[in-house]
Design a protein that fits this description.
The chain has 157 residues and is of the alpha+beta class. Helix content is 35%, strand content 22%. Strand 4 (49-55) and strand 5 form a beta hairpin.
Amino acid sequence: MSERRLEATVIGPGKPGILKVSFGRGQGQFVADVPFEKLDPSLRMPNSQFVAVVEGGELIRVEPAGRIWLTIQNQIRSVLNSDWDPIGVVGDGIDDEYDMYIGRIYSLILSGASEHAIAEHLRSIEVDRMGLTGTSMDQLYKVAAKLLKLQLRLQRT
């Protein structure tokens, strides 16, 4: 399982030392218990909102880039869903299937990776992680080119 970034809202207190937090939206939304110390004191009040980095159903950390990251994630997700979708699930109303790959793709873009490197990364996901035969390299180059044209606002730190 990989990290995902989701909108999060503190619902209120749970057991002692625990907060109830709602993660995500729509079908993928879930509520989890979060230890008090995982959140900055400014985020511990009911209705506090933040962007959470989660793995499975567990909060890993708060995303310091906040809402800007959600915009970047949405831009990359849009390209993956409309131009890549190697397992064909997006048409079935599943729009977050490839979210686990967004962070690494963003890192590649920021590092100045070539179209070829991004296409090879997508191919590696298809073959090594998904067990597929792989999309044609011509199509993967088109996806990579579109990803490289995105105007991503978050800067490298």
